[in-house]
Amino acid sequence: MDRLEPDYKNMKTPLPTAGEMLVEGFLEPMGITQSAFARHIGVDPCVISSIVVGRRGLTMDMAFKWAAALDTTPQMWMNAQMLHDLTKAYSEKRDKKIAGKIKPMEPVPAE
Predict the structure, then answer these.
(1) Nearest Cα residue to 92 out of 8, 19, 4, 24
(2) Per residue in 49-89, pLDDT tens?
(3) Are 27 and 19 contacting, i.e. CB atoms less than 8 angstroms apart?
(4) pTM above the 0.85 mark?
(5) CA torsion sign, 58 to 8 to 92 to 22?
(6) Which domains does the chain have, with CATH numbers?
(7) Contacts with 99 (C-beta within 8 Å, 6 or more apart), sequence order
(8) Which member of 9, 25, 70, 72 has the greatest number of CB atoms within 10 A?
C-alpha cells in the first residue's frame, strides 16, 4: 500500500518554518517588508523577525492574524509550524532519545 504522507522520520533536514513560508511565499512576492506586515497586523516588527529566523515559534493568535491579513487559514500556518517542529525533532533524533527512556505501558488487569 502506498503511503499518502511523506516519511517525516527520514527527512535529512526540517521542513521550512511558518516564518520562512511567510517571507518566501507571501511577503517577498507581494513586495511587502516584514516591518510593514508587522505594523499592518499590530505587532512589533521584532516579533515577526523572531518567528522568521526561528527564535520563536508561531502562536495560535499570530496564526489568526497572519491568516486574516493574507486571506489564508490559521490551520495552514499552525500545520506549517507543527511539521517544521516535528521534522526538526526527528532530524535531531529526539524521538529515539525520548523513546529509549520510556517503556510502553501495560494494561492493568481487571479485578
Answers:
(1) 8
(2) 999 998 999 999 999 999 999 999 999 999 999 998 888 88
(3) no
(4) no
(5) negative
(6) 14-93 (1.10.260.40)
(7) none
(8) 70
